[in-house]
Amino acid sequence: MKKTVVFAALLAALAPSAFAELTLPRLSQKATVMQVVGLTDVTIAYNRPGVKGRTIWGDLVPYEAVWRTGANEATTITLSRDVKINGKPLAAGIYSIHTIPGKTAWTVIFNKAAEQWGSYEYDAAKDALRLEVKPDQGPHQEWMSFSFPDVSSDAATVVLAWEKLRVPFRIETDTTAQALASIKEALSGEMKDWEIPYQAASFSFSAGLDNRADAMKWIDQSVGLQETYWNLRLKASLLERDGKKKEAVAIAEKAVKIGKANDDPASEIAKTEKLIVEWKAGSGK
Hints:
285 residues; alpha+beta; Serine Threonine Protein Phosphatase 5, Tetratricopeptide repeat; 2 domains; six-stranded antiparallel β-sheet; 10 strands; 29% strand
C-alpha cells in the first residue's frame, strides 16, 4: 500500500514538467512598424529573417515565385482609412503582403486573407491589389526591415530592405479632403468653443489651401466667440497674406495687447511684435 501511495505522489510531482510548454526564441524576430500619414494609421507587422552569409535572391528566395515577404507568418499591413498605393485604390482593412521577386521587377500583392502561415495557403483569388515595382540597390541590410523614410501629411514611401535590395511602394492618403470633411461636420452645429473654428482656419492657413474665404469666415467666427491672442494673431496673418497689411498690423497689435494682459507666452508675443515691425516696413509706414 505504501509503495502505491509513494508511486502516485511521484507521478503527481512529475506531471507538471511532463506537460510544460516549451518556450524558445524565434530565429527571425517579430517586428512592428507604425506610421501616421495625415489621418491614416499604417501598421506593418512582420518577422525579420537574416542574411547569415546566404545567397538570398534567386536562391533562398526564388525568383518568379510567391514569397511570404519575411519569415514565419505572412507579413501584414493594417490601414485605418482608404488609401491609394502607387496610384491604385486599396480599402481600409488588414491584408497580408506577398511578393513575387524578379531580377528586374517585383510584384507586390495585398491579399485579403491576413492570417496565414507564410504563403503556403496563398490564394490569388483573394488578392485585393497587385502592383509592379522596380527594386533599388542599397547598402547591406542584415536583418530584413520595413521603414517609412519619406513621410508627408498626404503620402509616405514604404521601403522593404534586405541584403542589398530595396523594394519601395508609395501610400497616398486624401488627407486634405478628410480634414475638410471633419471641419464641415464640426462646424455644422451651434458653436460655443472658439478653438474649433480657430483650428479649422489654422489648418487651412498652415496647409496653404486655396480656400481663403472659408478660412477668414472661420477665424471671424472664432474671434466672434472670444477674442484671444491666438485667433487674433492668426487673423492678422490671414490679412497679411491677402495683402491687407494695414489691417493686419492693427489686428496684430490688438493680439499683442490681449496676449500680455492674459500672460500668454512671451516668446510667442515677441514673434508677433517682430512681424508687426516687418509688416509696417513693408507697407511703407
